[in-house]
Automatic annotation (TrEMBL):
It is found in: Secreted, Extracellular space, Apoplast. Residues 52-198 form the Cupin type-1 domain. PROSITE patterns: GERMIN. One of its GO terms (molecular function) is manganese ion binding. Belongs to the germin family. GO terms for cellular component: apoplast. Keywords: Apoplast, Disulfide bond, Manganese, Metal-binding, Secreted, Signal. This is Germin-like protein. It comes from Beta vulgaris subsp. vulgaris. PANTHER family: GERMIN-LIKE PROTEIN SUBFAMILY 3 MEMBER 3. Residues 1-19 form the signal peptide. Its main location: secreted.
Amino acid sequence: MYLPLFILSLLVSLYPASAGDFCVADLNLPDGPAGYSCKSPAKVTADDFVYHGLAAAGNTSNLIKAAVTPAFSAQFPGVNGLGISIARLDIAVGGVIPMHTHPGGSEILVVIQGQICAGFVSSANSVYIKTLNRGDVMVFPQGLLHFQINSGKSPAIAFVSFSDPSPGLQITDFALFANSLPTEIVTTTTFLDKATVKKLKGVLGGTN
């Protein structure tokens, strides 16, 4: 009966609460696989735990007619080391967040305005798609391909939260067609014809 209490008191004495409450990112030091190094506690202020960047709409005047405004550790130092982050999605009419993955974390999306068709593909190639309206929430498991499309007749806004302060992002179309990956390799690995690959590289700015 007394042993668990003893162990608990020992842990509390070894790990005082103030020593591990947070690890505000020191943006003057490089980011690494474990995140940013901690800012000196003496230099931490309330401003480190507040971020104002999600109030303004993102610029959707681009190819995908959408914008992602992140509040990851690089923008919001207070989330560093806490296993959480957030971002804003603005999707114009006809806009899309293309197929992509977040290798570092799972995602929860909540629709604030408009209508969004969202879905993901499991590792067993099962497809899960749903049309979401204001107030609806959908989760996307870590590492799986997923997308969001404005399926309504007005601009859509959503907020997405992640289980990591830097969840990472890889957009499938850009990974295949927006770089110097040789056309021959793309055609072989995707079964697309060379003309289609060249066309997509031209649209997305790829070479070779």
